[in-house]
Design a protein that fits this description.
Length: about 180
């Protein structure tokens, strides 16, 4: 585990990110990580969004309450969204299929935790990191779905996601 090393990542403005966010989320996936160096968890996600809200750059993530990472996002003010080169897809698969309650994802995958100056955690292997501070959350609600088919397809157990809006406070790219 390492403390922030200024030579590993370069801080960039969000407007400098020249990525297709549809590709990043839907095909490349990301690790959502919350906590501090001695108390964190990470999970793979392919749902989310980026935009401007309340005149702030934001990211919105969705986590079901039964996911172990949910507890960390609830407890800590910051979370990171880390994107990787395609050669790490097996690691992302592993982190999406195994719970941090049951396995040490860092030990099993070889991920190297990296502490940012805020104390938020990412991984040395990441190529793009978006750091967020939570500014709002809410739960998806059964009676608010206009397309009832979504409930049957995505929520047969009625285990609706909580969504978190995070103000994007920093972006980093691998140097």
């Amino acid at each position: 585990m390492s403390k922030e090393n200024t030579s590993l990542f370069e801080s960039i403005e969000i407007e400098e990110v020249n990525e297709n966010f549809f590709q990043l989320l839907n095909h490349d996936w990301m690790l959502v990580t919350a906590g501090v160096l001695d108390d964190f968890n990470t999970m793979t996600a392919s749902w989310g969004t980026f935009g401007i809200l309340w005149n702030k750059p934001v990211a919105i993530i969705f986590i079901r309450p039964h996911r172990y990472t949910y507890n960390f996002v609830e407890k800590y003010a910051h979370f990171t969204l880390t994107f990787f080169d395609t050669r790490y897809k097996d690691i992302l698969n592993f982190c999406g299929q195994h719970s941090g309650k049951d396995v040490d994802k860092v030990k099993e995958t070889g991920l190297i935790p990296y502490e940012l100056s805020s104390g938020a955690i990412t991984f040395e292997q990441g190529r793009l990191v978006i750091e967020c501070q939570k500014i709002y959350f809410d739960d998806l609600k059964n009676d608010r779905f206009l397309d009832r088919e979504i409930i049957h397809r995505a929520y047969p157990a009625k285990d609706f996601h909580r969504f978190y809006i995070g103000e994007i406070t920093q972006c980093y790219k691998k140097q």
